[in-house]
Every structure is written in structure tokens, then in C-alpha cells.
């Protein structure tokens, strides 16, 4: 993705907006630090969002998931007591 500084963005704003509207988003940076991302309004907002419900009903998480293997892990760190 193209990164432009504020001065370049102000100088070429119309051209940059036309390109963004055609599907070429860009980032405006200040002193090399990205500040904003310019994308077309019809760009899919949720495209970058990961869904966590895509396996609902297909897998089960055990009730002891957060403690599974705790004894083995403790033994690896501390050895036999």
C-alpha cells in the first residue's frame, strides 16, 4: 500500500483521491509515522475482520482448557518435587 507524507498528500490530493476511489487505498504519514488510511467508501469494511464464529457447532472446547497439561508444564519448569 502506498504511503505518502502530508505535504505530498496536500499537493496531489485530487489525484490520490481519484486513485483511492478506483480501489487503490493509501496511507498518509507525518514524519514517517502512519496516521490515516484513505479507502473508497464502498470498500468492504469487515473484510479485514476475522470471524470467530465460523466453527460454531463443529468443535468443542473442554471445560479444563485453561489448565490442560498444567502438571506436565510444571514438571518441565520445576522438575520432580
Structure description:
With 81 residues, the chain is an alpha+beta fold. The protein has one domain (2-40, 47-78): 3-Layer(aba) Sandwich (YefM-like fold), CATH 3.40.1620. The mean pLDDT is 87. Strand 2 and strand 3 (33-38) form a beta hairpin. It has helices at 6-11, 13-21, 70-78, and strands spanning 2-5, 26-30, 33-38. It has a 3-stranded mixed beta sheet.
Order of helices and strands: EHHEEH
Give the CA-CA distance, first to last residue.
Answer: 55 Å
Residues in helix, %: 25-40%
- DSSP strand (E) fraction? 15-25%
By secondary-structure content and strand pairing, the structural class works out as alpha+beta
- Give the spatial strand order of the biggest sheet: 1-2-3
At the fourth CATH level, what is the homologous superfamily? YefM-like domain
Overall geometric form:
elongated
Keywords:
alpha+beta, three-stranded mixed sheet, 81 residues, 3 helices, YefM-like fold, 3 strands
Short description:
With 81 residues, this protein is α+β, with helices and mostly antiparallel strands.
What secondary-structure arrangement, pairings included, does this model have?
Blueprint: E1 2-5, H1 6-11, H2 13-21, E2 26-30, E3 33-38, H3 70-78
Parallel strand pairs: 1-2
Antiparallel strand pairs: 2-3
Amino acid at each position: 500500500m502506498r504511503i505518502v507524507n502530508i505535504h505530498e498528500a496536500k499537493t496531489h490530493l485530487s489525484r490520490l483521491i481519484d486513485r483511492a476511489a478506483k480501489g487503490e487505498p493509501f496511507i498518509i504519514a507525518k514524519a514517517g509515522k502512519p496516521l490515516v488510511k484513505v479507502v473508497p467508501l464502498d470498500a468492504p469494511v469487515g473484510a479485514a475482520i476475522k470471524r470467530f464464529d465460523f466453527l460454531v457447532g463443529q468443535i468443542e472446547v473442554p471445560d479444563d482448557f485453561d489448565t490442560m497439561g498444567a502438571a506436565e508444564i510444571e514438571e518441565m519448569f520445576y522438575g520432580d518435587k
